[in-house]
Amino acid sequence: METNSLSLINLREEAEQVNYTAMLNSYLREFSNWSRYLGIPKYDEALAAHFRSTGYDFHIRIDFSSIGQEVYAPLNYYSESGRHIFHFPIVKRDLLTDKITELAPTDMIALIVQYGQEQYPEIEADITQNRLVNSIENLEKYLENFIKHDLNANAVEMGFIQAEQSLILGHSVHPLPKSKQGFNDDDLFKYSPETAGRFQLHYFLIDAENVIEKTADDILPSVQLKKELLVLAANDTRVMELLNTHPAFIVVPMHPWEANYLLQQDDVLALQQDGKLFSLGGWGAEFTPTSSVRTVYNEECDWMFKFSLHVKITNSERINLYPELHRGYDISRLLKTPWGQNLQKDFPEIDFIVDPAFIAVTDNNGEVINGFNISIRRNPFKNEAQHKNVTLIAALCQDSILGEPSRLTNIIKTAAQKSNKPVTRVAEDWFKQYLHICIRPMVSILNKYGLACEFHQQNVMVELDKNLFPAKLYFRDNQGFFFRTGKADEILAAIPGIADESKSIIDEEYIAPKYTYYLMMNNLLGVVNAFGVNGLADEKRLLDIVYKELKSLEAIDETGLVSYIINSRDWSVKGNLLTSLHNMNEANVSLEYPAVYLDHPNPLNKFFFCKNLIKPERKDIVYTRYFPKEDVTLSIRPFDIDRDLEMVHHWFNQEQAKPVWKMDGPIRGLELFYRTIIPSDATHSFIGEVNGVPNFTFEPYWPARDLVGAYYECLPTDYGTHLLVAPIEKEKKFAYQSLQVALDYLFAQPEVGKCIGEAAVESRAMRALANRIGYQQQRVIDMPHKSANLTFLYREWYWDKNPGTKEIKIEL
């Protein structure tokens, strides 16, 4: 992008919109009071006037009617994987006055808290609002720096540290993606990866009795560091005297910001006073932060250092917990055993960047001082290896920065030019290759070796080959290694007692939900979303590819992971916004990884989504059937809001219909109902005609997205239908024939497995009709708005009860 065009960009506005987008997507993931809203309303003058003024007719509507408000976010891109792109501004409407005003992101937080306190009375707005402002301000500074230094975050080829420092926009589904509370402005530029800050490490000299140090390698890192320091400080009288007079003391490196923090703590001051700890200041080569901020890198050093950092980054102070130090040490030892050697031989496409060593420091009472906990990581990107074309997945999935094409776009388009193939073909092939080196190895490693990893996009890097295709994955993060109990005997046989300190052997049932969040929701669906947002591939098609790949692994998976991923109606996902609103510290020492987890619709269920039923593209008649006995012809067509709204409003407001349908009221409310269900994935409405006269409406629905699906063991192939016959003369209702036509059409769809019913228990007429047509009673379910008879109907049952229906052929 040229400098003059950059000068036209309002960086504050840009930073605000990036943060707002992340916060809104977090909300939509964690709350259910929203829907898509399609079109410009006819009976809502205030909303219609606003939509006409903006030119946008597709929105996310957030229903805050319980507090007298509603919010509209214009949609630029609606994502199948769940991360959407918006136009701005976002607006709120006061339902009492109809006044529509712009809604600032901090005011959106206030609305969320006001609405959410009924369910979560302990949440508060102030802290999250402050962090959000901090995140916006920080991103604005990073963007200014990005322009000032003419940085390139979108290059096709990048070395390790350039790629690590290219995540300018931050976590895409976190409400506070660039929040760093604890850094002042100088700290922000000196210690942030976004600014490529460089600094010397601070060194301490500490009594060996207060140091815990272990390594899976031959030499303790502190021994090598001490040798280097003896050379570096040869001309410093004080440091040399301390090193020479305390030969048994240990040299401990530290992040300089954390060193200053520690030197103000009472337990550290006590060690100083007792002559057990000395601060030596900054020495040696300069290090620079990786994307995690607290993990630092030098291209000539054998190690990367992962320090504790008492800075609140997104949801937590970044503190290494003592058991986490042992996890890196444990996996490093295991990989040197035949168990680990076989694993690496079986899966060469996965490189585990382990943390073979750690250093911890105790106070005068023998308690670990968490600020000193240091994980020491193998550096596979030393010297020439630093130039490998490897990138963090989170950075690869990053949106366009300041209007420039994203890095993923540049990679795919360049790869297409190299191969002389269409971009869409290359995008799909690239994704399949990524899937091949990601899903199959991780499922197989879990089954054969019992090893699970927090394989999310902040922990995984991909190396690209000469054709710019995924060649290898790197996993890093000492705290993210776990073992399932089903393989505990083999792991303990390799190294007895290995999990005593790390607590890394966990129950089988805990693995599937957590692994699904990290591997699927965060990692793979993040990649799917990036392809979709950048217009490189259709998300639904990529999700279908993921489903098929996992389905092919179901038979070899003994852990239940694959079945959970592909068959569950909902996945358990972390609620970053609610975790922030609860002011939870995810690095809490007393509770490992505290956070809010919630159910989220499984995107892979979309493999069984029936567009003909839920998102029909036609408005004409889709099915007609003649009933010779009654001498009537029944037809069905998708609901057309411009043609049918006034008619069904009249039906619903007839006195005999009100107590049954409970959909009477002003037409403005009914229009809102239809403008939200038409673009939804849950249901649609069809109009039925008898001899060409509108006579009934039926609503096919998908329990995988409908409320009822949460009240029984829902399958993604389940569908249901509601039947509403117009309030006319009894002899003209043809209820049985109307339901037959609906079921004919429903069972003609290959995606449908069975049809379910959930008529209210007091509805005797509907129960009799359902029994007559073939439904079988399962049980009574208690939903918030009614107690219902759950009934099932399979094709064979329907065909048996209704001779001749099996032979009906419907052209779809």
What features would you describe in this structure?
37% of the residues lie in helices and 23% in strands. It is built from 28 helices and 34 strands. It has an 8-stranded antiparallel beta sheet with strand order 9-17-18-13-12-11-8-10, sandwiched between helices. It has an 8-stranded mixed beta sheet with strand order 27-28-29-30-31-32-34-33. Strands 1, 2, 3, 4, 5 and 6 form a 6-stranded antiparallel beta sheet that branches. A hairpin with a 7-residue loop joins strand 3 and strand 4. Helix 2 packs across helix 5, helix 18 (508-533) crosses helix 20 (561-567) and helix 23 packs across helix 25. The longest helix has 27 residues, at 423-449. The two termini are 48 Å apart.
Q: For the largest beta sheet, what order do the strands appear in spatially?
A: 9-17-18-13-12-11-8-10
Could you list the spans in which at least 5 consecutive residues all have pLDDT below 50?
A: 589-593
Q: How many strand elements?
A: 34
What is the overall shape? Answer: elongated
Give the biggest sheet. 8 strands, antiparallel
- Rg on CA atoms, Å: 30 Å
Spatial separation of the terminal alpha carbons = 48 Å
Task: Indicate the mean pLDDT.
Answer: 94
Q: Total number of helical segments?
A: 28
What fraction of the residues are assigned to beta strands by DSSP? 15-25%
* Proportion of residues in helical segments: 25-40%
Task: Provide the structure class.
Answer: alpha+beta
Name the features.
812 residues, alpha+beta, 28 helices, 23% strand, Siderophore synthetase component
